[in-house]
Structure prediction request, 298 residues.
Amino acid sequence: MPNAEEPFQLALIQMPVSLDPDASLAHACGRVSDAADAGADVVCLPELFRSPYFCQSEDPANFDLAEPIPGPSTEALAEVATDAGIVIVAPIFERRGAGLYHNSLAVIERDGSIAGIYRKMHIPDDPNYYEKYYFTPGDLGFRAIPTSAGKLGTLICWDQWYPEAARLTALQGAPLLLYPTAIGWLPDEVGNDEGAAQRDAWMTVQRGHAIANNVFVAAVNRVGFEPAGGSGRDGIRFWGGSFVCDPQGRILAQAGDEEEILLATIEPARVEASRRAWPFLRDRRIDAFEPLTRRFLD
Prediction:
């Protein structure tokens, strides 16, 4: 395992999920092991990887899918982390207490310990993405979690549209922002210009975060079609497209729309080199940014 200043191999596990949470967890553990065998030092799974994307409908029975941290998922993945000597970023539907749930992730160190937890800060509520019904907004703030591979900037899905989230995480010294994701098309968006524009916007905004903060960015999505259940809609086609880009927004690796382990080399020294050439952090007018704390400038 490299130290915090050395390059490391990042793996993104782009995968479909099963109706059986235990089967999904077992599959994820196997794919993480495969990534370690391929040379990965840090492995990231997609958002809510243990179950179908249940937020397509509002059903109280879905709260039964939640688990504590530590819990079954982190314990199973801790065994993999220990056996392989890797760091794992594991998204979890977290049961914090009775009636209190978060869309979270746990960063598991190579010795199986939990290096840190992040709770999703931005919670969407759109057709087939009814997350406000399930998730309490995060209360840990934006986090760069120290690990044996260096600091990992941890964010989740809807967070990826907010430049403030990327900035506040990058300012903590993370050379890499990780976005576990569950995003796709509704049936009437597949294969048309609107659907293509959505996917392009998704990549463009995250590449912009990489450029504006001089950091690496990685987004890992799920794949496959998942029906909507009781929502009365037809479901989501998750588009995959997981990718890694460098501090200038250049794509280092990108997946298609099938299951895949995506590998890329992260070189923290390139953050320093990029910030010397493009000193965005130096030139920030922090004395003039107070209005950003307001909802709208009436």
Summary: The first helix runs from residue 21 to 37.
